[in-house]
Amino acid sequence: MDPRNIEDIYPLSPMQQGMLFHSLYAPETGVYFEQSSWTLRGPLDVPAFERAWQQVMDRHPVLRTAFLWEGLEEPLQVVYRRVDLPLEKLDWRGLPEAEQAERLAAFLQADRERGFNLAEPPLIRLTLIRTAEEAYQFVWSHHHSLMDGWSQPILVREVFTLYEALRRGQIISLPPARPYRDYIAWLQAQDRAKAEAFWREMLAGFTAPTPLTVDVPPARSRPAEGQDDYAMQRILLPAETRAALDALARKHQLTLNTLVQGAWALLLSRYSGEDDVVFGATVSGR
What structural domains and CATH numbers belong to the chain? Predict the structure, then answer.
């Protein structure tokens, strides 16, 4: 590490600390390794595309961040002044479509297995695979500690805004981006003791989430210890039902997510017989 290339050092957010812990504890699982694969069709100015990604990395300190933990009481994130974001380029134009599909599947698997060294930036990888004269497969991999789901479309929008300008030979100035350090500073300024006291009072009497007691499987059919005990089910609602839910949410100035969580809370209350219920939900944020 060259000290002259260090721009900033500051603590991790609680969410980042958890992600770092799980990534180091079980690196073989690939937990928090994010990978997207897109098909790009049409003429592509590859140098402009590469420069656009580099400019976005130069613009956002969190994208130039790595993590240090060895020999430290608490882990730290280190922002580097300059980090080159290489774009690996592959050319598969001469391969049959079926072989391209097989190679892509193998590439994506190898990329996931490769993972990231969290102490070395960048924690982002880009690969551009040319599959036809005007067709590319673009693979974007990154560690989830750098950004949440809400951040990704903002980042992509900036990339393509800069790409269009570069392709036309124009110079544009994007609005200033607030650095991630500001959020860390805000977190550190919070009264943690007051927040802990609030939640201890709010959750007094609870030792576990409220179970959904309907259709509980018998002991002999439950997963063994250490095995996953969950499942996923997707249900498509009719368009008219969705419209009615949207209207109800707007009427009461709620988000659709809040409405659904309220319905889940009522369901838990009904089947558990409890007036107060507790359940978890995944949220975006770093």
Answer: 3-186 (3.30.559.10), 205-272 (no CATH)
